Every structure is written in structure tokens, then in C-alpha cells.
């Protein structure tokens, strides 16, 4: 099996090999506690076995639903936020053409419900005016403010446009199996629906219908994605020292040495949202009890010309993990030019990617020299299968890292804080006392 | 004059008012040294007076060039990286419709030369195949690798497609006044060209043709942008205590207390690239000599569901600055729903923006309560004029902050490190010794 690789050899300039070695038993214990289900937050460990548990029938059902929706529409608005947004977006942006939203394609995916921008919704409604559109709405409860607002607006518009019956055929819901507003509505209106398992948190849900259905609607291969996750699961769960324990041990060793920011870097703009997905995964899992490594993303070489200076010579508190893609899908050679005014003829005949690869290697060396420990994750190609491997690798490493730092990696109690204030300010029923208190405070 | 506002009152929960007060004289001295031109890096202070110095003739020239290019093309590819990319992109993304790249518009702007993605260029060339396109190429030297590769590829394609004469009319160059590859080529081929001043660094160049011309090509009001900068310049240079000294003093006080990450947050997705521009401005200016505040961006409420947990309860090392836009351009009301399954009827009849504003206020309160000092920048509306004010405000505050921390805010020596390695690895003529050394190291 060809697979993604993890290399932490450059870390050894910063942490002694023995220091990382000493963390392996700790990482292995953490992994064991995940496997045994006796870690903190163990009611949310469903993601561990997800790849194995998805059946061919479930995948087929999603593929057929996607096909049906595609046949009725030219645009599908995927409504979701956080874990109900980033996984699908990460895969779709990684696999779609860079200009897929500019040119012609048989399906456009638009995301909504992930912000409360009034102009965003005005422009979205306006854009959809003359389009045949459908909706894929993702919410466990159906009452999360951002997606609920978006769904109200778009459902109303769609029903006005095509009638309630046709709208019912163009709306797919991904929600709780039994309870909640969206479950009730889906059952009432006869929407096709899929289930968000109870034991999988949002940021670990990309391999449930939450991620898989939108990816299928966009036209990408969800079987390959799951296959990749199955492969990485096998690789990581069957041996104690594996890429996930290595990554967890290396970053934990660095963190304990005082490196408290981790940069995840790509050299391919299509990986931008995979990095955003990773930021949620690690940030939300580790950032609690005043602990955690601050997760930041950089797209290189773009950001070498913005954040590059800081990384090279700013405070020495950053570690860096580079995601490298070995083989591009297409070939572009750099042309020769007789005048050679730009002095680029030494590159003539080379592939663009050769330059990119030397930028990557040159950057890694420069950052290590400058005092930034470097780790490397290599994907053979940017395909659904390797992205599936990457997801499982990061999820498992995240669970292990969180256990090692002593937090519950599977809750997110801090996310309620802004919501509670917002509800109090908006005088939501049930928040009367909080409303009074916050109004008093603001005086 | 209506103008953007800066409020740092919430910082006083974390730093005593007197502690900030004690920094004002320092901030004022830094401002004075910028005005007197006796600070470090004083050969790059051109940005201070740029807004006043641009003449109506220069603006007209850019507007007419933009008009001519628009009349010949449907797509313009803007080639540039770093400071020759982010300023224009920030304004265009802030002022364009959220779906401008999806729907019909009389002009599309595509950015290139800011990465070395082989698939990106393959797909770009493919996309441009059947388009009437033009090129706006921005490079001081004309030899920076990323834009030089992009320009070689696109110039060759354009000349093949429409012939060298017509191509010459569709290419505009923004480059050095006298020297460099692009200047030579522009003069040879008779390209319309504009000048990058010698005394303005890339990240401070948005109010030169580097930023202004692409913005004009996209169809936005560059006079209003400059007007805004003129207003903020007047406001800040005519009084010692002004928004820029306040911001510089407040963030420096927090930094000296140990807050070493600054989050710039928006509640409007259109501001995303303004934050990217800010990250370069501050990161590249302050991140040197192992000093600096790590600049990170968050788009709320989107990222409240990813980075929110970390911000609320992670390590207490972050300060946060929120950019708030008071008034949206359009109106969308939240509809009522008889069934009210989503329990959103308490919001029925409210504008979407009212919810957004309460999310914003609720977030600021929650973050302060959680231990994240908060600062606030308010724009009355998201218009070119207020963005112009914002740019000058941030540029001046950045210059002051950099001087206060003792670095040269106007150089970026660390950016060369990866380039030197890359050239050595690619065996660029002149790098023979370095090539040998790096090959030896890699063995």
C-alpha cells in the first residue's frame, strides 16, 4: 500500500532524540486509552472506527442521493458551520479545479450558514434568483443560530420558487437520528435525511454523512476517501509506533520545550481548507484548561512573502509542519525566452513543480536554520484516498496529543460563552435573567 | 468628517490605564521620529506622505488605463506576490460581491504569480483558453521567481492568442522607474507602465499604482480610497494622541505583559483579505531580531466554531482586535415561521445584521471575561473611503509599534533565506558555491 509519510527527523536539532523517545511510551499509553475507551471524553470516540463501520449500502445511498440532487439542480447550497462545514469544504477545495467557480461545471457548491453577514445573504439570495438550486442542511440540533438563519432564508426562497413539493425533493438534511428541530422537520416534510452519530463530535465528523454527502454532491469519490481512512486506521492501530504516535510525541516534546505555536504549511493553494479543518481539529481539541498549542496556517510560497519574515526571524516559539504533495496532476513546463530579461532561463524546460519543490526544501532548511523545528507530512498525490489517510492520521494524532496534555480532547465547553451572551443580548426566551444582567453590565 | 474609530477601553481589565499612559510618550516619540525621518529604515518612509502626494493626473492616468484594459478584455490576471498582491486583493474582495466570481460581471480579476502550484497554472492556462484576457504585472525587479514564472507563461500564451501587438496593449506593468527586467521589457514592448517608488516598501505600497491600478481595473473607486487615507493622515499627524498612537501603545503594553499573539478578527467575510494584508504589514515589520507579536486572523462567526474554543479557554497569550462594520450595504430580514421548530421566531423581523452585532458584542465580552484583552476598530461602512482610512491607520500604527520595539520596521532581511536555498538547489547562475554546499549538506 502506498501511503502518506511522516518525517520528524529535523526536530532532532531542537529536541534530543531521547527526549522524544521518552515520550513514546506516553503516546502509546494515550493511544491505548483511546482504543480501550477509557480516556477522558470517551463517549465521543465513534470516529476511531468510523472508516471500518461505514457500509457499502450507506455509501451507495449517499451516492444516489447526490446523483438525484445533481440531476435536479445546478447549484447546491451546503449549510453548516464548524465541523459541519470545514471537512466537506476541505475535500471539495482540494479536489476541485482552482477556477471551478469561474468557469462552467455541471455542479456548483456554495457554502452558507457559516457566517451572519447580512450582505452575504443578500448577495446569495440575489445570486440564486435565476438558478436551479438545492439545499444540503447540516445541523445536529437544527437550532444552531448561523445555519438556522441561513436555512430559514433559503428554504423560504426555494419553496416560493419551485413550490413546496419540489423543494422537498431538493432539500437533504443531515441531523440527529431521533430528536431536534431538523429531524422533526425532515420527517414532516419527507426530506431525504442522513444521521449524525451521537458518538462523533463535529470536528471528527468528516467521514460521516456530514462530510461525505456534500463531497458526493460535488462529484468526488467518497469511497476512495473512506478507503484511505481505512488504510491509515489499519496502519496506525496495528503498530504501537506509527505516524500518529510519532507526530503526537514530536509536537508534544517541542511544546514542552516552549514552542507554543504550530504552523501547518502547504505549498499548494488547494490545501488551504485542509489546514482550516486541521486548525479546528487541534485548536478545539487541545485549547482548554489554559493549555494547548496555537494552531496557525500558512499557504506557501504565497505567505513566505507575508509571514515568512516573522517565521524566519521573529520570536522562537513556532514549530512548523509542512504538508507536501509529491506529484501534481498536470504538467506545465517553464518556457525558454531568447531575451532572458527576467534571468529565468536557468529554469527553462523544468516543470513548475520542480521549482516549487526546491522552494519547499529550501524553506524547510531555512526555517530549521532560523530556529523553527520542522516536521513533514508527504502525500504521494492529492487524491481522495490520500486525503482520507491524512484525515485519519490527524484525527488520531490529535486524540493522542490531547490525552497526553491531560485535557478532554473531545469536548468544547468554551464555544458556549459567546452564544450565551448573544442570546442574552437578543433576549431569547429562557435567557431573561442573563438579559437583565448583561444589560446592567453594559450601562 | 465621519471616520473609523479605535477603542481600547476593554484593555484596561488587563493593563492599568497608567501603564498604557506611560507608553504614550514613547509612542509619540516614535511618531515624531517617523515624521522627522530619523528612525531606523528611514529610506522607506515614502508611505507617510503618499496619500497627499498622489496627483489628480496620476489617478486619472490609472483610471483611463483601467478603462482601456476593461474595454479590451473580460478577465485581467493580476500578477504579483506579497505586497504586490495583498493590498489590491484586500480592497477588491472587500468591495466586490460575495459571488462575483460565480455570476456575471463585466470584469473578472484573477490573481497569479503568488504561488508556484503547477496544477494552479495548468488550470489557469486552461481557463484562459477561451477568454479575452489581459495582464497587470507587478514587480519592482521583474526577476522575483513566482511572478516571473507566471508572467512568462501568460505572456507567451497571450502573444500566441492575440499577437504581439495586441498583447502589448493588454499588458500593463508596474515596476521600477529606471532599472530592472520588467522596466526594460515594458520600454521595449511599449507596455503602458506605472512606477513603484523607491522609498515605499511592498507592504506599504497599496496606495501606489501597485494597489491602485488593479483596484481601478476591478472597477472600484480609487479616489475615495486615497481620500480616506488623506483624512486619516490628517487626523493622526495633527495630534499627538490619535488612533494610531493609541493602538500602538495599547498593543505594546499588552505585549510587554506577555501577550505575544494578536488576533485580528472580523465579523464580515469580505474583510478576510484585509486581515491577510494586516498580517503581512505587522508580521513582516515587527517579526525580526527574535521580537514581534505573532499576527493571526480569524473570520467570525465562522471561526468561533473552530478557533473559538482555543481563544476562550486556551493559554492566555492572545490579544484580540476586532474590526467592526457598523452598517451593511443591503437589508435582509429574518422571516417568521409558523411552526417555529428551529425556535428562531424571537429573531423574526430582525435584520440579519442585528444578530451579527450581538454575536460581535457577545464575543467581545466573552473573550474579555475569558482572559483575552480586546480592542475595537469600527468602520461606519465598508466603502473605499473607510478602507483608505483603515490602511493609513494600520500603516502608521505599525510604524510606531515597530519603532517602539526597537526593530527596523521597514526591512525584511529574513525573506531572502528560503530564496537563497532555492536558488542554490536550482543551480541558478551565480550560486555555484552555495549549490555545492547545500548538496553536500543534503547527502
TrEMBL record, chains A, B:
Family statement drawn from the similarity comment of this UniProt entry: Belongs to the GPI family.
Protein name in UniProt: Glucose-6-phosphate isomerase
Gene giving rise to this polypeptide: pgi
Keyword Isomerase recorded: yes
Stated role: Catalyzes the reversible isomerization of glucose-6-phosphate to fructose-6-phosphate.
Alphabetical UniProt keywords: Cytoplasm, Gluconeogenesis, Glycolysis, Isomerase
UniProt-listed Enzyme Commission number(s): 5.3.1.9
Enzyme active site: 284, 419
Any one GO molecular function term: monosaccharide binding
Pathway: Carbohydrate biosynthesis; gluconeogenesis; Carbohydrate degradation; glycolysis; D-glyceraldehyde 3-phosphate and glycerone phosphate from D-glucose: step 2/4
Organism, as annotated: Odoribacter laneus YIT 12061
GO biological process: gluconeogenesis; glucose 6-phosphate metabolic process; glycolytic process
Reaction catalyzed: alpha-D-glucose 6-phosphate = beta-D-fructose 6-phosphate
GO cellular component: cytosol
Alphabetized InterPro entries for the sequence: G6P_Isomerase, Phosphoglucose_isomerase_CS, SIS_dom_sf, SIS_PGI_1, SIS_PGI_2
Keyword Cytoplasm: yes
Compartment annotation: Cytoplasm
Chief place where the protein resides: cytoplasm
Tree of life domain: Bacteria
Amino acid at each position: 500500500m502506498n501511503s502518506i509519510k511522516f518525517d520528524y527527523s529535523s526536530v532532532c536539532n531542537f529536541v534530543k532524540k531521547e527526549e522524544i523517545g521518552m515520550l513514546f511510551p506516553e503516546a502509546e499509553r494515550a493511544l491505548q486509552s483511546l482504543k480501550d475507551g477509557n480516556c477522558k471524553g470517551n463517549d465521543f470516540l465513534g470516529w476511531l472506527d468510523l472508516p471500518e463501520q461505514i457500509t457499502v449500502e450507506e455509501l451507495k445511498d449517499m451516492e444516489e442521493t447526490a446523483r438525484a440532487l445533481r440531476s435536479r439542480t445546478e447549484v447546491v447550497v451546503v449549510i453548516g458551520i464548524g465541523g459541519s462545514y470545514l471537512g466537506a469544504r476541505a475535500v471539495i477545495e482540494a479536489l476541485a479545479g482552482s477556477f471551478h467557480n469561474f468557469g462552467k461545471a455541471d455542479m456548483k457548491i456554495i457554502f452558507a450558514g457559516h457566517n451572519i453577514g447580512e450582505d452575504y445573504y443578500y448577495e446569495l439570495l440575489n445570486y440564486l434568483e435565476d438558478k436551479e438550486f438545492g439545499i444540503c442542511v447540516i445541523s445536529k440540533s437544527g437550532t444552531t443560530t448561523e445555519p438556522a438563519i441561513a436555512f430559514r432564508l433559503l428554504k423560504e426562497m426555494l419553496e416560493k420558487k419551485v413550490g413546496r413539493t419540489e423543494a422537498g425533493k431538493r432539500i437533504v438534511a443531515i441531523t440527529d437520528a431521533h430528536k431536534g428541530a431538523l429531524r422533526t422537520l425532515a420527517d414532516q416534510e419527507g426530506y431525504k435525511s442522513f444521521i449524525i452519530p451521537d458518538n462523533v463530535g463535529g470536528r471528527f465528523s468528516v467521514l460521516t454523512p456530514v462530510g461525505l454527502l456534500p463531497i458526493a454532491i460535488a462529484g468526488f469519490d467518497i469511497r476512495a476517501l473512506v478507503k484511505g481512512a481505512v488504510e491509515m486506521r489499519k496502519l496506525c492501530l496495528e503498530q504501537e509506533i506509527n505516524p500518529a504516535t510519532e507526530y503526537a510525541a514530536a509536537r508534544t516534546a517541542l511544546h514542552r520545550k516552549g514552542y507554543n505555536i504550530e504552523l501547518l504549511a502547504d505549498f499548494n493553494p488547494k490545501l488551504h481548507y485542509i489546514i482550516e479543518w486541521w486548525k479546528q481539529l487541534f485548536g478545539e481539541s487541545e485549547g482548554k484548561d489554559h493549555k494547548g498549542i496555537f494552531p496557525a496556517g500558512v499557504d506557501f510560497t504565497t505567505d513566505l512573502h507575508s509571514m515568512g519574515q516573522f517565521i524566519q526571524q521573529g520570536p522562537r516559539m513556532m514549530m512548523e509542519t509542512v504538508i507536501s504533495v509529491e506529484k501534481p496532476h498536470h504538467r506545465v513546463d517553464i518556457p525558454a525566452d531568447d531575451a532572458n530579461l527576467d534571468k529565468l532561463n536557468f529554469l527553462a524546460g523544468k516543470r513548475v513543480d520542480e521549482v516549487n519543490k526546491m522552494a519547499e526544501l529550501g524553506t524547510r532548511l531555512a526555517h530549521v536554520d532560523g530556529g523553527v523545528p520542522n516536521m513533514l507530512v508527504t502525500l504521494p498525490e492529492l487524491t481522495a484516498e490520500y486525503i482520507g489517510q491524512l484525515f485519519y492520521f490527524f484525527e488520531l494524532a490529535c486524540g493522542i496529543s490531547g490525552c497526553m496534555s491531560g485535557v478532554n480532547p473531545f469536548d468544547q465547553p468554551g464555544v458556549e460563552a459567546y452564544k450565551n451572551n448573544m442570546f442574552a443580548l437578543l433576549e431569547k426566551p429562557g435567557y431573561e435573567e442573563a438579559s437583565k444582567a448583561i444589560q446592567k453590565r453594559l450601562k
